[in-house]
Amino acid sequence: MRGLGKTRRTSRTIGVGTGAAALAAALAVAVPAQAHEVAQKAARTPHWALKNSGVDVRFRGLSAVSRNTAWVAGSKGTVLRTTDGGALWRNVSPPGAADLEFRDIEAFDARRAVVLAIGEGEASRVYRTEDGGATWTESFRNTDAKAFYDCLTFLDRRHGLAMSDPVDGRFRILSTSDGGRSWKVLPSGGMPAAQDGEAGFAASGQCLVGSGPRDVWLATGGGTHARVLHSADRGLTWTAVDTPVPAGDPARGVFALAFRDRVHGLAVGGDYRADQASPQAAAVTADGGRTWTAADRPPPAYRSGVTWLPHSRTSALAVGPTGTDLTTDGGRTWRTLDTGSYDTVDCTPDLGCWASGEKGRVARLEG
Fold first, then answer.
1. Do 225 and 242 meet the contact criterion of CB atoms below 8 Å apart?
2. What's residue 62's pLDDT?
3. 20 to 30 Å CA-CA from 132: which of 157, 250, 256, 334?
4. pLDDT tens column, 9-31
5. Phi/psi of residue 225, each to 5°?
6. In angstroms, what CA-CA distances link 157 with 3, 38, 212?
7. How many Å apart are CA 131 and CA 126, to the nearest integer?
């Protein structure tokens, strides 16, 4: 979304009080036997441990591959990669990209990744690497001045989608079936009309998410209602439903989604302006997004990123510029665990939970 601000805040750990105990319990019950040793360690004193990225740019794009490997993407065309749990970050930024705003990155492993630059016209681009960022190929450059791409997602290693704010009254969907090597704009006939002022938020790389081989969801704000659009055929046709998250202003709406399967999803957002309250900033669905219910106790402020904890049916983390929140009941109630500033969060099956944000902040959940 064009109006999304680019500034936010800081702290170091999820402390050892009640919040840490709740997170430790969530991790302990969520993890299968083969990860028991990791769970025991995490259960001691789980906290966000900051990793020295060596830069001060804002990382709104994050893709966690494992506890050891993660990619981050941010302002000034910056892409970093670690393969040793964050001890060392290698700058693997595409050459000539210093003027671009990277807001989303999707990594398949330590070598293959696709990154999205946002902006009007030719500022929206997609790059792809197959050698850990040693070389990059520009696989898409937007040539429509009316388009503004916000988010990117992959359903598997071949099929991926990117979404643009409405063009001629409808959200535009870009599609790849070869792992991001080539892209095509999908027909708009299956996309519902956008509301006046409606757009996506390029805040965390989570305004477009998928689950399984064909299902994808798109989050919106700015219009009269904050909506979630769903496609069950890889972006060809869509249905749109209202959520209880407040909208009605360019700064308000659903900023991030997370689905743990085809039916159970979370939505977080609010108003990204620091001087504005964000009531009802979270919602939950148990029917694939056909209906959304407001959280009984939502996060206390705007949240831009959300992810399910590994192997859990009920626990998830949400992050934003004023803190990290945990739910252990599937999104009905949230408890603040930390007041550090993060824009996005991602977890992997081996308990590799990562977060990133302003001033080069990158952290891993450790215990």
1. yes
2. 98
3. 256
4. 223 334 434 555 666 666 665 55
5. -125, 145
6. 32, 28, 12
7. 16
Confidence (pLDDT) at 8: 29
Look at residue 14 in the predicted model and tell me its pLDDT: 42
Burial 70-97 (b: 16+ CB within 10 A, else e): bbbbbbebbbbbbbebbeebeebbbeeb
Q: What is the pTM of this model?
A: 0.91
> 216 pairs with which residues across the strands?
210, 231
**Any residues with CB less than 8 A from the CB of 34 and at least 6 apart, and which?**
none
Q: What is the pLDDT of residues 89-106, one digit of tens each?
A: 999 999 999 999 999 999
Q: How far apart are CA 20 and CA 16, in angstroms?
A: 5
Q: Considering the chain, what percentage of its residues have pLDDT values greater than 90?
A: 86
Per the CB < 8 A criterion, the answer to whether 238 and 192 are in contact is yes
